[in-house]
Records
---
Amino acid sequence: MENFKMKAGETSAETKTVFSYPIHTHTYCEMTLYSPFDGNISVNNQDISPDTVTAILVNPFDFHKIDVKNDCGAKYIKISFDEGCLAKGNVLETSFRLDGINPNGFLASLFAEAYAHRDEKVYFKSLINAIVCRISTDGEKISSASVTGGYKAASEAVKMINENFCSCITLQSVAKSLYITPQYLSQVFKSETGMGFAEYVVRMRLGKAAALLAETSDSVTDICFLCGYKNLSHFLRSFKREYGLSPNTYRKNVKAKDKIAARNNLNRALIKNI
């Protein structure tokens, strides 16, 4: 499960295939370099079409999500870090977007270099600061979410779901934990996230299932129960309704695309060395 909190000064980096992920928020900064894909990235209800190589820098607590329409095996490099990693001059007051990035240019190479040296803490943090400086200087600001009472309630509810969606979590239990009524939580959750409470939980579970199908060899049955479903038939129906494919077919398609991408990368490397 993705972590939505980080310790002071903590960092991480990963590269994976782009997949749909429901709206969420977390307590740390996140910047991601996306290769082009057919779909949409949304930050604070502002939609971004990744028709070119695109970098997104998300400020803590800003809502964001990814919708992939046609799975094409596109990749991303994601770097997550606590704000304590930033130099004094790098103060993030909002999220940023930067489109039309040259895949062989300076910023893309910085992301690749940071991922390659993610275990070298001092050098990694210097690269993080260089990337933040570049995106915040050349990029376009994305307005931060307004911090209202409704936003705070929805944000807290989202964090609780993010940390517990694989277990039994309900609108009533979350509302009780936040000392508000289920009716009020339902209203502000829909207003702030654009979807109902139950729909969000389902999206989180299915998004996690899709990631496990793509990245592990766990059985469909195991993934079903790992993601909070109690009934395999219900899971299979929900997954096909969301992705248009059965879990097994989805996995085969992702694996096939990964093999093609790996073969193409090998061919390019061989040609380069001739």
Note: The two ends are 43 Å apart (CA to CA).
---
Amino acid sequence: MAIQINKGDVINNEELTELFKCSTQGGMRRSHKTNTLVLVSNHVKSIYSDRWFGKELHYTGMGSSGDQTLGTQNKTLYESNLNRVEVHLFEVFELREYTYQGIVVYNGKGYQENQTDIDGDKRKVWMFPLELKDGKPVRVNEIVIKKLQETKQKSLRKLNKQQIKRLAESKKATTQSYRIIETKSIERDEYIKLYALQRAKGNCQLCEKPAPFLKKNGSPYLEVHHIKYLANKGSDTIDNVTALCPNCHRKMHSLELQKDIDKLKKLALEKLEI
């Protein structure tokens, strides 16, 4: 039975269930009606650690508590090259949005590693290296990846010291995972940058202290900051830029305090003294 869906399509859970005639829940959903196994790699709400290595996804097996075995759907995936079950991959980057990556093929080199289960206890899981049949994963926007990292960082703050210790100690030295992302390069006007730096007269416009050091050419080291980020459709104009020391620049991006934003907005309206 041919499934009518295209790579990159984003659908909801109801549409996924109707399309594949599978369960509404779980990361591994077997359908006998369509002879498929739907894999969902949920990067928003999941205890599993699925990782991309370029064009290959190492997918964590089924089972949220205790050691995983090669039973149920883990067995289906493990034997998918023999049982002729077609395996389809979705990824979740936003709640209730399932991005279709395409048909994947298990490369037969499954392995076990230590991860923590739903209770925070160390256990063994099965990892299944999967390769996309067409070899081309859907590229994810860099901004989406950064949002996911921020969400994960927030969730980690809820862990106690013992849980953090378990997670950190279960991490072994392996090849660093990476995925191909889509980036958008915004061209910035060098005249605007120079204007902002000269207007600051060598002092950070937030903490008002002198630049932390001089560059090799003798000019003060300050970083140009866009009050409304270019990624959020802010303008690259003199009334939207300020010059900050590295500490204050990080502070703006980390805290985004309204009082600091208001202060910089006022300073950005000042004209360069000739």
Note: DSSP finds eight helices and 14 strands in the chain.
---
Amino acid sequence: MTDVVAHFLVFSVVSVAALLAPLVHMVCVTVLLLIGFRGTLPVVGMAAVLAYGGMFTLCAARFREPPLERLALVRAPATAWLAVAFLAASVLLTSEIDNLVKAAFPPALELTAAGEAPETPPFWGLMLAVVQIAVFPLAYELFFRGILQPLAVARLGLGLGIVLSALMSGVASGLIFGGVWGVAPAFANSLVLAVLRQASRSLWPPIALHALTGVITMGALYQLFGIAGFDDTTAAHTPLVWLLGAGALTGVGFALLRVASRGESEPAAPPGA
């Protein structure tokens, strides 16, 4: 009975913290707009720094061990870095999940990149690059994979802890960027990042993969790949051959993580424990 209560409390704490993060993020966006800041991307980026940076600072104040060690900002195995290159292919799979969700539950209104392009302000691409490749990878990974995931894994066990932290990260990210339609693909992406963090025993590979998927997303926005259902939005779905290839590459990435995870130590104690 005590274990059940403890698990419920941990579930509640992790859930509240993860769901509070996007709420604080949206509040920061609103405040910045009200006080005169302009430009969606700069405001969203600054709000992410304020929201996740603030919550991260509050949690980090309870660390009993060196911050770099506690956050797993340590050297990762070479196989983990190789896995990052293969796992980048998973972006095609998460994109197709997004396609399937929107096919099953069509959004009432969807703005496309092509429709927004003519009205984008100067330096829009540069601002997007900074937000997608630097701000969000650091903010999300430090908070969700650096703080919340070790807490969940230490208290709930490996499998449940990884799934729960990935679910909370997916909900937070999905609601910010895609509404309810964005939760499923964001959860899938977060699950890949969570497994990468756990297997590599380092936060650097998830940060790198998050940044790399940001680069790929930017390429898709400018239709650099010509892949149907991915950056070619005239098609509703990505062809099976592309999905099978992406699945194979992602599988190789997970196999490399299995090698990297050998000799993994016990989960670290949560902040303040």
Note: The radius of gyration is 19 Å.
---
Amino acid sequence: MEFIETKLAIVLLDLIGSTQFVQSVGAMKSAQWLQYHDRLARSLVYRFNGREIDRSDGFLLSFERPIDAVNFALTYQETIPPKTRLGCRIGIHWGKIVEVKQAEIYTMTGAKSVELEGVAKNISARTMSICQAGQVLLTLEAMKAIQGRTNSFTPKGTRYACVGEYRFKGVKQTQIIYAVGSTIESLQPPPSGNKVKRIGGPSQIKSRIRDRKLKEWIVWFLVRYCLIMIFYMISTLIPIVINPYTRKMNELDDLFHWVDYIVDFIAMFLGGVF
């Protein structure tokens, strides 16, 4: 047995609703479908120089470079769920971890050849636990290691956004969490979870001008057009309403005769003050 302390990007990938999926389609069909998913996921792990540590309802993975972990997660979310129809959430943390290399005598009986121990694994798991479907979250430590960079393997339109500060159960320090993705939906701040409490942060991440889609531009235009029209109508109507002569000319006297009382009251009030 060997213990090695090192720094790694720890990735926790969780399949959402996997238990319900197994119950709905049966053990044999679910096993075949999940193996199909695992083949696709493992091909990406290999492509981005990752290493599979464990597998249960998802994967525990490690990467030597944080940018490889992010590129794996983004490429996974863009390509695999549409093929498998299985939702996924991914948490990433960069920190010190202890690699435990098991003795051959234990691996012969089914033990994993390499295990990871340390709070970095717990932080990655907590980060993953508050992810929404299709979301990739990473800690401040991972963000600092990446420095917001991208490379030729990063999907186009990728954007980082700080989604808030959270307190993780069992972890002393609060955690600043970032979302990374190419859609505005994937960047929205997640709420508190069972073992995670949201302390603060933005309530919503807004789309950048260059990222806005046609629907967002139409809404943006209509809202401003309506506001301009309301202001125009008010500014046009007020001079007509407060003047008795213009009210009669426009046949509005019966509707707005009460305005005279308000105008007289304001005039008396101002006269009394000054």
Note: The mean pLDDT is 85.
